[in-house]
Amino acid sequence: MKKRKRKNKPQIELMIKAIRYLLLITVILQACSNTKYLTGNQKLYVGGKINIINKDLKKNDKSALESELAGLLRPKPNASILGLRPKLYLYNITRTTKRKGIKHYLHSKGEAPVLVSAVDLDKNSNILVNRLQNKGYFQAAVTGDTVNKNKKSTAIYTVNTGPGYTIRKVTFPSSNNSLDTAIAGISKQSLLKVGDKYNLDVIKAERNRIDVTLKERGFYYFAAEDLEAHVDSTNIGDHQVDIDMQIINTTPGKARNIYKINNIYVYPNYSLRDTSLMLDRAVKYDTYNVIERRLTVKPFVFKNTVQLKPGNVYNRTDHNKSLNKFINLGPFKYVKNRFEDVSRDSSKLDAYYFLTQFSKKSLSFDVLGRTTSANYNGAQLNLNFRNRNTFKGAELLTVTLFGSTDAQVSGQFGGGHPLTQVGLQTSLSWPRIISPFNFKNDNAYIPHTNLSVGYSIVNRLGLYNLNSFNGSFGYQWRENTHRSHELNLLAITFVKRISVDTAYTNSDLYKNNPALQHVIDPQFTFGPNYSYTYTNTTETYRTNTVYFNTRLSLSGNIIGLTTGADTLSGKVRTLFGTPYNQYIKLENEFRFFHKVSSNSQIAARVIASAGLPYGNSTILPYSQQFFIGGPNSLRGFRTRSIGPGTVNPTIYGNTGGGNNFLSDQSGDIKLEGTIEYRPKLFSIVYGAIFADAGNVWNAKPHQGQEGGTFGSNFLNQMAVLGCVLMPACWCCVQI
Fold first, then answer.
1. Rounded CA gap, 341 and 218, in Å?
2. Which of 30, 304, 443, 463 is 20 to 30 A from 382, comparing alpha carbons?
């Protein structure tokens, strides 16, 4: 086994210098104390502290309550990091009477001192008492005082919570009218439980729960404000309360009725200038009516969009689904909705949807530039044409003319050979499933059928030029907010070389790397692929969130089996005169996020992927192989510079001029893992402590790449990086 160690002595020296500078800055800032700018009896307020007196509270509950109460204190002290207050210091040293200039600008970016004289102890104490009473501590008492030291003051709040009250009994309306009966029918799911601690927030949540549930059962005009909670703690021992949920007497009669849907009207091209409902122009389609002055959207488009149905009881879920689907169709910028009573004494509603369209056609020009920590410099130009309603069926046509270039500079391998691409990509997306089979779609998301075709010229400067064609047909759909799917029934890639330089074919790396040999061979890949994604990372209230994606790709499997393709036995099969690729490939990525506190997070990622060429192929196509290293992979290593296994790319010759041939190292198997701690230092600045590990391997032995095959000792062949990143310094160790 070979272990590759990269030189880290310059990095360590740089780290030592950075630490010295950091210590020097710290000493300077400490010497230039912010308190010296205070005058007279002024004292700098450095924060408040909560001391809770309650021997019955568990340690974790006490800590959580202290944190919650501390968040209510006002004013907030000056922002600090590592005990320093840089924004206050900036404010102090840039004091000026001028209204413009660099000093005035810096002064405006600083932070004025927060003085203890601005702290109202009584007001803060009353706020804390109010919060404690809302949490069931009806006998709470709070006193506040300040502690002074060296022109700095801390506010101390002593909190005597008293006993916490619990719920003894919960009652709901009990009359026979439809509203009271409906509320009584959902009382078993109540958030208010006998024996739980009294909490005003839970009462509010219960009131909202009842409102939401009633909206699902036709009570369109009911509002949470129509419900109130009577809390009684008198004449009840053992610190308990009774809660009686009641409908207020002023609730209007309309709020007590169940409403059904009557007629549904859709206006696909609504304008603010339209003052008439134009009901005489209504065109009936399925269960709804479409109204517009001239046909811009075919009526069938809304068949799976309008979820409410005439004759059905109104419910908020179908109402919201309809609104989401109208927006997700694509051509519509705004959706305005209203319901109207059919008549004064009727319990029926007419539904109106007013849709405002985007401009049908648009042309945009994008210029993208980038510089990454992997020494990649690149630029991309895109000219985009869009038609949001191509055939009046909400189809989205996108045509993109693009040109891009990427090159690495400096680093371990020199400049290499820049990669440029010029091409045209066209796609057409339908907001529905186009299939001979009928697929039910009753959730809030629009499925899409996608067709794409593209062509590009790929140029690796000084090495080769390739023609590349691609096409695909498939579907995208969301199962719910967490789960999404993508299925391409057919994805095609055809690559054929235009020219190849002898510098490429004569290089040692080309001769010893089958993947690079395959790059310039004619390639024909076709077959289905499927991707599944689960994520709940958008739910920021969760302590733990995850992201998982798995993707299965196939090529030439059925035709290879039926024709008996076997390259190793000399049975190479072709399609349209070109040998086709045959393989199966599985990719998996899992991410885990743990919220340590409101200001810090632990993030972990694991990638485990493998591709198996067989039958008509002995190696995966270069575009389907795995690479590792770079800013989005093993940070600190150059992009695509690691592996396979213990193979060292620097052993191969170069093409002259001091530039190594190609650093791109690939494999059939990829394992990668990272774990990172991200503490928030101040404002939007985060630090990081992380470790990365990974490598790629060949599935089968290749001549010239000894040590590159996956085996039982794969753990010993992992490239490892450990790093500490701070705003003023960094230190990385690579192996």
1. 13
2. 463
pLDDT confidence band for 647 (50 / 70 / 90): confident
> What is the Cα–Cα distance from 21 to 9, expressed in whole angstroms?
19
Residue 47: how many CA atoms within 13 Å on its side-chain side?
11
38 vs 155, higher pLDDT: 155
Residues 6+ apart with CB under 8 A from 684: none
Q: What is the pLDDT of residues 264-290, one digit of tens each?
A: 999 999 987 776 888 988 999 999 999
Using CA atoms, how far apart are residues 227 and 180, in angstroms rounded to an integer?
11
Domain with CATH 2.40.160 in the chain: 408-734
Kindly report, residue by residue over 574-633, the tens digit of the pLDDT. Answer: 888 888 999 999 999 999 999 988 778 899 999 999 999 998 988 888 888 888 887 778
CATH second-level architecture of 408-734?
Beta Barrel (2.40)
Dist CA 727 CA 124 (whole Å): 35
Which residues belong to CATH 3.10.20.310 in the chain? 166-256, 260-357
- Encoding tokens for residue 25? 């800055």
User: Cα dist. 111→21, 106, 553 in Å?
Assistant: 24, 10, 56
Asked if residue 50 lies in contact with residue 70, where contact means CB atoms within 8 angstroms, the answer is yes
The yes-or-no verdict on residue 728 having pLDDT over 50 is no
CB atoms within 10 A of CB 713: 10
pTM score, whole prediction? 0.79
Q: DSSP letters of 442-465?
A: -SSS--EEEEEEEEEEEEETTTEE
Q: Which amino acid is at 387?
A: N
Q: Which CATH class is domain 260-357?
A: alpha beta
Residue 641 structure tokens: 């510079």
Q: What are the start-end ranges of the H helices in 231-373?
A: 316-328
Q: Are 507 and 655 a contacting pair, CB within 8 Å? A: yes
Taking the C-alpha atoms of residue 349 and residue 196, their distance in angstroms, rounded to an integer, is 41
Going by C-beta distance under 8 Å and a sequence separation of 6 or more, which residues neighbour residue 2? 646, 648, 707
Rounded to 5°, angle at Cα 629 from 623 and 633 = 95
Give backbone dihedrals phi and psi of 29, rounded to 5 degrees, phi first: -65, -35
Q: Can you tell me whether residue 128 is helix, strand or coil? A: helix
**So what CATH class is 166-256?**
alpha beta
